[in-house]
Amino acid sequence: QLQLQESGSGLVRPSQTLSLTCAVSGDSINSGGYSWSWIRQPPGQGLEWIGSIYQGGNTYYNPSLKSRVTISEDRSNNQFSLNLNSVTAADTAVYYCARDSGSHGGGFDFWGQGTLVTVSS
Amino acid sequence: DIQMTQSPSTLSASVGDRVTITCRASQNINGWLAWYQQKPGQAPKLLIYKASTLQSGVPSRFSGSGSGTEFTLTISSLQPDDFATYYCQQYNTYSTFGGGTKVEIQ
User: Fold this and answer.
1) Do B100 and A105 lie within an 8 Å CB cutoff?
2) What pLDDT, in 10s, does the model give residues B71-104?
3) Which residues of B touch A47 (CB under 8 A)?
4) Which of A121, B1, B17, B40 could bridge B13 with an S-S bond, Cβ 3.0-4.6 Å?
5) SS3 per-residue string spanning chain A
6) In chain B, which residues have their Cβ closer than 8 Å to the Cβ of A105?
7) Which residues contact A76 (CB under 8 A, 6 or more apart)?
């Protein structure tokens, strides 16, 4: 069974960089037809797609966050990461990593449990 | 950017009710639409993809329909486990979620 687990700092200072990693077990991030994504949810609010990384390393980002976001992969450790720079209080949210089933139908079919990141001095 | 508008934002219903949630896209999304269920403190769960295909393991009381810019999620007979917040998501161009519909006990 595929499992995803987020890890990283739960508290980030304003203007600093938020860094999270998603460890994937039960399947390879190189599996064909899938991509790997980050999604966030501010407290009490809805879901926002941050970006995705595809097989081969191509990345796509939410245009509203594109200037601050980098998603990368570490194939040797079967994990992928999120960096979000110049954070403000508006970036406080639960951050989820998820698998996008892509050519297998679409939709985020597996999710991590989520990790709360608070931006505060 | 494609905007997704869900209605209603809150829905009060009773066990056994038939429930319908609507999701409208700001442009044609060619059927590339998914529905999720989220309970407090949990990650969202994929219910339906490609507008009407039921994800494996999801009860058949859930169904999706629609095309173009208008889509619906229907729960044929609401069960106690179904009280939750539901989100639609388009994945025709990047990805955008609707604002959510909270289904609460009447």
Assistant:
1) no
2) 999 999 999 999 999 999 999 999 999 999 999 9
3) 36, 44, 87, 89, 97, 100
4) B17
5) CCEEEEEECCEECCCCCEEEEEEEECCCCCCCCCEEEEEEECCCCCCEEEEEEECCCCEEECCCCHHHEEEEEEHHHCEEEEEECCCCHHHCEEEEEEEECHHHCCCEEEECCCEEEEECC
6) 49-50, 53
7) none
pLDDT digits (tens, 9 = 90+) for A59-112: 999 999 999 999 999 999 999 999 999 999 999 999 999 999 988 889 999 999
Q: What is the pLDDT of residue B90?
A: 97
Cβ contacts of residue B76 below 8 Å, gap of 6+? Answer: B18, B61, B62, B63
Q: Is B5 on the interface with A (CB under 8 A)?
A: no
pLDDT over 70 for what percent of chain B? Answer: 100
